[in-house]
Design goal:
Radius of gyration: 19 Å
Strand content: 15-25%
Structural class: alpha/beta
Helix content: 40-55%
Shape: globular
CATH class: Alpha Beta
Bound molecules: erythose-4-phosphate
CATH topology: TIM Barrel
Distance between the termini: 45 Å
Number of strands: 8
Number of domains: 1
């Protein structure tokens, strides 16, 4: 399973990249706003800066909600850097835009997906990635992981090439469950990746090994 980090924070992206297990980055307008990135030029420069840090796909979201607007914005984003993936919302014009970019060989990520039917449509339109938001489904007492399972089954039934990008991942168990189900990619905060390191038996075991080594070498 590929690990993406869901942030526009350059320091966190650098930290994840340095770990050696990062495969890409996802951003969204809220994450860009959180970093104080305002204005078209600053936004484009920020995407370029992210692409220069990470060795993998970088999702950049369009703001337009009409077909022509999404195409115009998406083409400008795709021209920025070969690693850019155009992120398109799951709306009617978004489906048309996914098909347009798929026909042109431009990578896409269909975002704000909350049902298997939406994921089926995104795959039919040729999306490179589909992003079911599991954490937001959990937030409303629905099982986000069950949706990943359902999409996996549908995509396998028909050998769709669209990759399941489990999004809105909140913690390490989401990551482990997504890997068990067979999600192709997960995107979450840095803590959902670094948290995988932690186990008290590892810490205790290492402390014991080091203490024993120190004793026998004293
Ligand atoms: C996905 O691409 C989104 O940016 C993201 O995963 C949303 O996560 P959130 O629900 O934690 O905001």
């Amino acid at each position: 399973m590929k690990f993406f980090i869901d942030t526009a924070n350059l320091d966190q992206i650098k930290e994840a990249q340095a770990l050696g297990v990062l495969d890409g980055v996802t951003t969204n307008p809220s994450l860009m706003a959180k970093e104080g990135i305002k204005g078209e030029k600053a936004v484009l420069n920020h995407y370029k800066a992210i692409c220069e840090i990470v060795d993998g796909d970088v999702s950049a979201e369009v703001i337009a909600t009409d077909f022509e607007g999404m195409v115009k914005e998406g083409e400008a984003l795709a021209e920025l850097h070969p690693q850019i993936v155009v992120k398109i919302p799951m709306i009617k014009d978004g489906i048309k835009a996914l098909k347009h970019f798929s026909d042109k060989g431009i990578k896409t990520n269909c975002t704000l997906v909350f049902s298997a039917g939406q994921a089926l449509l995104a795959a039919k339109a040729g999306a490179t990635y589909v992003s079911p938001f599991i954490g937001r489904l959990d937030d409303i007492s629905t099982d986000g992981l069950q949706l990943i399972e359902q999409i996996r089954l549908i995509y396998d039934n028909y050998a769709f090439e669209t990759q399941i990008l489990a999004a809105s991942v909140r913690h390490t168990m989401h990551v482990v469950e997504c890997a068990s189900i067979g999600a192709d990619v997960m995107t979450g905060p840095l803590s959902s990746i670094t948290g995988l390191l932690k186990h008290p038996l590892t810490d205790n075991g290492l402390a014991q090994f080091l203490a024993d080594h120190a004793k026998s070498n004293a």
